[in-house]
Design goal:
The protein is α/β, with parallel strands linked by helices. It has a single domain, classed as Maf protein. Helices cover about 40% and strands about 25% of the residues. Strands 1, 2, 3, 4, 5 and 6 form a 6-stranded mixed beta sheet that branches. The longest helix has 18 residues. The relative contact order is 0.18. Its cofactor is Mg(2+); Mn(2+). It catalyses: XTP + H2O = XDP + phosphate + H(+); ITP + H2O = IDP + phosphate + H(+). This is Probable inosine/xanthosine triphosphatase.
Length: about 190
């Protein structure tokens, strides 16, 4: 049986985000053949979003900009990593937004706290990936396991963290009768 093909625009060229998006779609919709096109689009927020609201807005903006650039696609997905102060600590997470022509799904990843040395650099205006590379002596960690991979020694990678949230953002598309304005992919 041939799988129905869907075209997914991933609003990023970061290979970790692309892989998380594709694998999340495949995990929830194994009957579909997902073709992904990475596309660099503006988030229209700071390179390092510093609040929950700014991070969500970045994901929403990426999806909107991707849909403007490639309106012929079936789905667009934005994945935006961010941090937010919580008490005396800095929490790290990401927002995932999936859009089709008829619906929208959103989810946030799990949250973890950054070590003080990393937090201090981020609060000084250094992007989290760069701060991680400086503290851990790594190179381009945001296109590999990310902060969570470095901290957990890859027990959880950035791709895994994001992929779970992709699945959660797709729930309205998997359950269209419960989310009246959403349609299932395909």
């Amino acid at each position: 049986m041939l799988k129905k093909e869907i075209n997914l625009i991933v609003a990023s060229t970061n290979p970790v985000k692309v892989a998380a998006a594709v694998e999340g779609f495949r995990q929830l919709f194994p009957e579909l053949d997902v073709t992904a096109l990475p596309l660099s689009v503006a988030s229209e927020v700071a390179d390092q979003p510093m609040t929950d609201a700014e991070t969500l807005q970045g994901a929403l903006n990426r999806v909107a900009n991707a849909a403007l650039a490639k309106p012929e696609a079936d789905y667009w997905i934005g994945l935006e990593g961010g941090v937010a102060p919580l008490g005396e600590e800095l929490a790290a997470f990401a927002w995932i937004v999936v859009r089709s022509k008829t619906g929208l799904g959103k989810a946030r990843t799990g949250t973890f706290f950054l070590p003080p040395a990393v937090s201090e650099l981020v609060l000084q205006g250094i992007e989290l990936g760069t701060a991680d590379d400086m503290i851990f002596g790594s190179k381009n960690s945001k296109q590999a396991g990310g902060a969570i991979g470095l901290l957990s020694q890859n027990a959880i990678t950035r791709k895994q963290l994001y992929q779970q949230a992709v699945v959660l953002a797709l729930l309205p598309f998997k359950n269209p009768a419960l989310y009246k304005t959403h349609r299932q992919p395909g």
